Target: Cytochrome P450
Amino acid sequence: MSNGYAGRAWLCLWHAKEEDDAIPTAITTFLVIAIATLTFLVFSIFRRRKNSKNPLPPGPRGMPFLGYLPFLGNDLHRKFSELAKTYGPIYKLQLGSKLYVVINSPSVAREIVRDQDMTFANRDPNIAATMSSYGGRSIAFASQGPYWRNLRKLFVRQIMSNASLDACYDLRRQEVRKALSDLYRKSGMPVDIGELTLLILINGMMAMLWGGTLEGDKCEAMGAEFRKVVAEYMVLLGSPNVSDFFPALAWLDLQGVERDMKRVHQWLDDFLQSVIDCATKGKTNELFKQKEGESERNEQKRDFLQIFLDVEMDLEDNHSPTDKNRVLKAILKDIVVGGTDTTSTTIEWVMAELLQNQNMMNKVVHELTEVVGDDKMVEEHHLPKLKYLNAVIKEAFRLHPALPLLVPRTPHASCVVGGYTIPKGSNVFLNVGYIHRDPTIWDKPSEFRPERFLEDPSKYDLSGNDFTYMPFGSGRRICAGLALAERMLTFSLASLLHSFEWELPQGVELELSDKFGIVVKKLNPLVAIPRPRLSTPELYMSR
Ligand code: HEM
Model:
């Protein structure tokens, strides 16, 4: 456009030479050109300045086309922390055609989850997450919007409310007690702690969902299979996938992530479908059993599943029954998969740290004896009084956050954070694992020292308001199951530690290395031997 205008101006100047008003016309023309050029120059300088004022974050150079992809390795959480030492509080990684931004300081994290929380409340699920969440229908992977807002509101206000969680305490307790009596029969034998706690959690969640649990001879085998499948699922969700970085190549599925996720997703889908069929159609299944009296599900009794079934209709009014079923399974996945693996992994870490630090184990057991007594079982009302155990759990969350990179967020508009531009659509990781071990924040950060949480117990809670400590995330997308996670984790752990003495099998060396998945687990499963420590055997039989 400016070229056309300049051209017309030159033409005008040429014709003016032959006319009487040649001089004023020439001046006008020059002025127009000068103003246009000046405007253009000022605009370009301003634009350059603006960009240089807020450039993209620093970051390592990569290779043409591939970016940093060839250097990423398998342990993302370790690599991201290594890079944070070089590039500081915020850096970028170009991975194929996608831009990733990693946040490594509380002050920059605050800008994301507090100051610009609304901008960053979106997710951009990768191929594996989209497939596994039935096309982004789960709470965890749905885009910000009315669907996600309504679902989350329902989940947090109705399912996770104190009243609702109090109402289903009995169901949780029965599952924990059942596990304790099974364990009593196995005392003196080595137990895989991750497997044990996952089974408690699956059954606890299923009991709260619809009053049914895994039952029968195949129960343990099913639990172990579930664990294996969920572990693979978490690795696939977190693995760098070439198809995500080069969408044009996605059809090739070069690493087979899509193929593997399809298989894992199918297994979980069948599992969840059986749960729904048992719960809603009264279908029988050799693996699931409804608790006695639960078969007469009536109008007054609204378990988790019933609440979802009712409200899901409102959410997806115009959808076909198949779609509604998918939405329901996506939500069940949030609970049965997202809620169980994170919680049981954390219990395993706590047990490992306590077995490593015998004096802390003694303090925990002493506190349990004082608060609960050796002639009683743990109840949820004891939990707030277990100050030392709660500090141990917080310290385990600090050193071993289940999701050390949280779940990535995506800004819906370009914005400035920490003085750098984060373009719309980039993937933003909050490197909580790194912040939790930052020596400028934490004294001797790699030491397991629960006492740091006792010094000022009100300073650190799990609500994500202190950006130096965010094991459940923060802001609009903070963990939706926090209330239940806190109760289930502390109750199961306190019960296991109160009812049994634990020791490592002879000759076994404990090590605490981890392996990456979206949930970071112990590299080698923790195996320990339980021995009863309560006053009478009858206590182990109580429900
Ligand atoms: C120790 C146990 C748990 C840990 C450490 C944990 C941690 C987290 C974290 C870090 C996030 C991402 C937060 C963010 O992006 O800022 C998250 C999201 C979520 N969690 Fe948990 N979680 C746990 C247990 C549970 C349980 C028991 C449930 C369900 C009953 C649950 C349901 C969810 C859901 C639905 C989301 C997605 C929230 C959203 O995107 O709006 N979690 N969790």
About this structure: Residues 139-140, 152, 334-335, 338-339, 342-343, 346, 402-403, 406-407, 471-474, 477-481, 484-485, 489 surround protoporphyrin IX containing FE (CB under 6 Å). Residues 1-19, 44-49, 295-301 have pLDDT under 50 and may be disordered. The CA atoms of residues 462 and 472 lie 7 Å apart. The longest strand covers residues 90-95.
